[in-house]
Design a protein that fits this description.
Length: 61
């Protein structure tokens, strides 16, 4: 079994939580919550891709 890449697991959990937050904000009819969660998804996924690129360049992926 392969080794767990902890940073990617954390990014995935945070992104999933933000996507769930979008659903909750829609249910609560909170425009601010919806926008905040969408921004959080974009930022967290961007950090994940940035980390993956850095690890690939260093040869640790």
């Amino acid at each position: 079994m392969k080794e767990v890449k902890w940073p990617f697991l954390i990014y995935a959990i945070l992104t999933a939580a933000s996507i769930m937050g979008i659903g909750i904000a829609i249910a609560e009819k909170s425009l601010l919550g919806i926008l905040g969660c969408i921004i959080a998804v974009v930022v967290i996924m961007g950090l994940g891709f940035k980390t993956k690129k850095k690890m690939r360049e260093n040869g640790t992926l």
